[in-house]
Amino acid sequence: MATMPETECNLRRNLHEIAGQLRLSAAVVEFLDCYYADFDFAGGSDASPEELVGAAIQHFRLGEQRSLRQPVLALYTPDFDRHGWHSPHTVIDVVTDDMPFLVDSITMLVYRRGLAIHRLLHPLLGAERGPDGGLQRITPHGGQGSRTESWIHLEIDRIGDGGEVEELQQEIAGVLADVRSAVEDGAAIQQNMRAAAAELAADAEEAAYLSWIAANNFVFLGGAEYFVAAGEQRLTRARDSGLGILRHSDHPRFGRSLAAIPGEVAELGRDPSPLILVKADARSSVHRPAYLDFIGVKRLDGSGRIVGLRAFVGLYTAHVYHVSATDIPLLRQKVAAVRQEIGFVARSHRDKTLLNVLETYPRDELIEIAHADLVRIARGIVALHEREQVRVFMRDDRWGRYVSVIAYMPRDRFDTTIRKRRWQRNGWTTSS
Question: Phi-psi bin for 115: left (phi > 0), alpha (psi -120 to 50), beta?
């Protein structure tokens, strides 16, 4: 039977001694045991037992009262006279129902503001609450008769500006609301994607792509439906059709969900494909800070006219970036079409080089790029394998919002000095 390391055993004993000195109730002592059940005392040894107890007590007080489905949140810089403990850092405490993406979403917001995280705790606790939301008992995660809650504690760079604290608190509250909306509606959005695939049965490859996406290859964060009203030539959002982060048309970041595509039906009709695969013009507030992927599925009447659109936003999962392009519907067709047009002898050295170029091409780009652009760029990259030189390949986003740039430089000419100099010259930042 494994024994607890002596250092950890001593620290836990110290927590109980401090709890006794403070004459904490049995409920708080029980909470301390559950709160620090999985805490890495060796890795977190820079915190004194007094600090650990003080932080836990403040978190307990925050979570003593919580309405059903409503998170509670506090930001404060610990001061001994006010909070019973001291820290040079600002604290973020959250208590909410457990669900995916919580920690990822909060930490990416903190990092986006240029703040460092000095300590992170995320105990999953079983909470028994009364009808009014009052905390009656804390049990270990999975305790019988309890609901699992996420108790998230972060210590970040000190924020001295009260306005900045308030602004960050509002942003975190917004992120928590986005996470809840996305998680609660995720299954419904996924089902709508399957329904869209069924409607595209005649377009077999596009339907297969949507079915493949719906099979856990996409993190569904939002969806909505649009229709073309009689006598109109613009898409209008259907009332109460919004799901996930598109639930509310007045959302401060995602309310203008058609910002990713043009609203004019005539412009949509210029592309014969029933699918619209582009990047939205807003970064995700959930899971990871990438630009949202937008999937639009046109709805046509019997004569082929556009009468509506199913819109989905989310993020492709990691699997999409690691599986072979020839195993993904639509992409396999795109790869085959490029190889056929370029026309290298099958299985020749150049054909194998071309296939490698397409397989290793940035996956987001491969999903979105038009056939003509991909032929042009792929042919140019193959040529670089035969004659090393610096080349830059560019393409316009199909709706004129972005320009994608891929730069190639011979390996022996590219080093850290060049990388930093080029990025700094453009006012960008780099990370190792």
Answer: beta
